[in-house]
Amino acid sequence: MRGTRAQTNTGRKEGVNLNKQQKQKKETTIDSYYSPNGTEGERSANDKPEIPANWIQAVEELKTQLREAEDNWEKNLKIKISHLETEALELKQENSVLKAKIIQLENEAKEMKDEAKEMKDEIKRMKDNLQRNLDQKEKDDQKAKDEIQSLRTRVKQLESSDLTRQQNTIKQNKKNEKIEENVKHLIHKTDDLENRSRRDNLRIIGLPEDHDKRKSLDIILEEIIQENCPEILEQEGKVEIERIHRSPPVFNPQLTTPRNVIAKFKNNQIKEQVLQAAKKKPFRYHGNMVRITQDLSASTLKDRKAWNMIFRKARELGLQPRIKYPSKLTIFLQGKVWSFNTTEEFQAFINKRPDLNRKFEVQRQNSRESSKGST
């Protein structure tokens, strides 16, 4: 727009100069024609008719008007030229500002171009890094898949081996159960054989240690029989003892109770007579209470010892408890004899009978109170 305006002003200036030149040429022609001293005017006057005076006056007035118009036109032209020059200066200044702005924009565009290049390079680096990361991730994923597949294979192998192991364990458990049954049977047979080897033995419990320091144990046993069941000696005469000793053989001074005495009779009938007499009444020796029982194996004694508390409670309740060979408890209840191989069987039996269970509970409480009182 500003370029168009500058071109318009230039055209105007050239038109003004052309009109001015034409006017000066015209004025020169008229002046020279009407000049008082002009030769051309004189030549014209000689050749042409005389011009009226009013016409000359009109021409002079016209010339004056033309000069005034020319002066006004020149003034206006100068003013317009001044305005045009001012506008040209402003346009020049604006052009300088525009050039500065263009230079600034070019610099900014260059900076933006550099930044765009840097961003492009950065995007390329990021893309390369991303591609490398993706490649590495694919490798890691593939590695993880391979490891998972390997683990699955191992798990399957372990499951297979575990199944085989379980099957072997089941087989081994069955074998172990069979072995345990055989062991229990062998233990039972061994205990039975040991108990049968002890069938001629009696165990004397509670005999003080100082008695056998003055006399031999076989003489003491004969005196016990003489004091508590003399009829056996009257019938059989002398009691023959194959072997008699303390058990354990080594004395432990820390024990407060005397060691048991085990006596092996040569005659089993005499042994049974003494045992039956000891079941009927308590034996004494020189004022001391002694207890005579059948000699049994250690395991059988342990099994019988488990019945001690139940045996005492059953006896206090009038159930007539008995311990039968090898370690079986029997009671008399409601006109019937009941037998139990283990304490668990007996507990399950009384749990089914609330009245009997309550009696045993009361008996347990009384036993605890009495034990606390004695303590």
UniProtKB/TrEMBL annotation:
Residue intervals of the L1 transposable element dsRBD-like domain: 298-357
Where in the sequence does UniProt note compositional bias of the Polar residues kind?
A: 1-10
Q: Where is the composition biased (Basic and acidic residues)?
A: 40-50
Give the CC-aspect GO terms. ribonucleoprotein complex
Output the Gene Ontology terms for molecular function: single-stranded RNA binding
Lineage top rank: taxon: Eukaryota
Region Disordered, as annotated, extends over: 1-51, 128-147
List the Gene3D superfamilies. 1.20.5.190, L1 transposable element, C-terminal domain (3.30.250.20), L1 transposable element, RRM domain (3.30.70.1820)
**Which residues lie in coiled coils?**
none
A GO BP entry: retrotransposition
Residue stretches making up the L1 transposable element RRM domain: 199-295
The protein, known as: L1 transposable element RRM domain-containing protein
